[in-house]
Amino acid sequence: MVELLTGAGALISRYEVLFCDVWGVLHDGRTAYPGANSCLPRFRAGGGRVILVSNAPLPGDAVAGVLDSKGVSRLAWDAIVSSGDLTRLRMAELGLNAIHHIGPSRDLPLFAGLVQKLVAFDAAEALVVTGLVHDARETADDYRQLLEAALAKHLPLICANPDLSVEVGGRFYPCAGAIAALYAQMGGKVCWEGKPYPAAYELAFKEAEKLGNRPVKRDQVLAIGDAVRTDLAGAARAGIDALFIAGGLHREALMAGDVIDQRKLDEALGDEAATTRAAMPYLVW
Fold this sequence. Notes:
The protein is of the alpha/beta class. The chain is built from ten helices and 16 strands.
């Protein structure tokens, strides 16, 4: 059974570096969780480094602005690695010039300053999906006709947020990952940019080593996250330990009030239990 904690202090103090998720751990989409602005600053004050590893489809500096708006203190983190950063790197790597964006206008900072141009579908060399245009009323299936046309043209799809869904103030909304998963199911080529895929952790390790000016051993890194499919699976693939926050994405399935159901937790974690050192409702010291 995975150990249940009421406080993270004793566990996280064993590590030098935290790779911490953002949405569902530091805030709920509207406001910061109380523990976010006490636990992580305390860890950093003791000499630890915190790299926020986020599947947000925005560059790291834009993610920082979002965190400011949610009330997350800048004392809580040292650096940010985002799916937006990884997406920008992927577009450059593929040598793309013209891309068609699927997603809301709030994600347009992803493309600021790039040589790639946003174009109509017919002129596109690839699709970049940051989310659903109207995520409050749409599902991935609303994009099936567009995806069929993309498949016929053999267009690659770059997924700038591998999450399938996200919670905003107690309500769940579909994410870019839902569209990308449908395209993959249809036989399309998908480039997944973010957790649980290796590139996110490789970049996070580089940031941690840059901050400490020395190599970081994997047994000195702890991942903190609220999603089994991305945070815990990604940590396992990267060969690092994990702390699971049950009060985020899986809250309704795993908790009654503020109490974790141990049996449901162990069933939900499955193979990821091997590298999950503990679980707790919310991140507090």
